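During the reporting period the student researcher (J.K.) took over the structure-prediction task from the postdoctoral fellow and processed the backlog of single-chain submissions. One of the processed entries is reproduced below for the supervisory committee.
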Amino acid sequence: MVKMTVDAMGDHCPIPVVKTKKALGKLQGAGQIEVLVDNETAMKNVMKMAKSSGASAESEKISDREYKVMITVEEKNAAVSESDQKGQTAGKESRAQAEGGGKEAGESDHNPAAENGSNSSAQGMNKVQLSSAGCATCIGTVVAVSSDKMGSGNDELGAVLMKSFFFAETQLPDKILFYNGGAKLTVEGSDCLEDIRILEKEGVEILTCGTCLDFYGLKEKLAVGAVTNMYTIAEILQNAVSVVSP
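J.K. obtained the following structure tokens:
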């Protein structure tokens, strides 16, 4: 039986869960994963995710700042996990065909008609149907990032949450747009840089507003993706099937 250890000590939510989920994906058969975290909330979140995946999980409090979760994956559960992974791969391949004018089956449903209050028969239409209806320019999911912080209230917390967002981005979008303060995330010295580079390697197009980089004096420090303009940003947002703003 394969045994793995996930050290998530000191990691902020949802990083312990994401690390554990990635470890589960690496198992080729039955196995055990030992997860180390430093707080009870993280322990409970890891337990919940593991059980929802069909694995069994037991927890142990070692000290006030150290908890251990032991996850056991049986052979039958491993087979289910492998099937899910193939489904995710198929989803990525279908996203790659978006700009070719068509989407393959397997991607998530989207209901633009319902969002606009329409009661037409377009309700429940997914990306395949959108394309066949003549939306050759439709883009799947676009993430629009307008700040280097996530949410409002505390800037330090907002920076931590933004880094966690990119680390936790397992459902790959087609494109990520960075503008205004968000342009600070794609340059040298950004805490999010490595996670954004990983997303780019997975096929996500990374685009940063050139005017914004100029405004902050960062154009020469761009370290991932390409420079774009507001015309292109507006066009992408208008043609996006779904827009996510962290």
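The committee noted the following: Confidence is low (pLDDT under 50) at residues 86-92, 94-134.
J.K. will present the remaining backlog at the next meeting.
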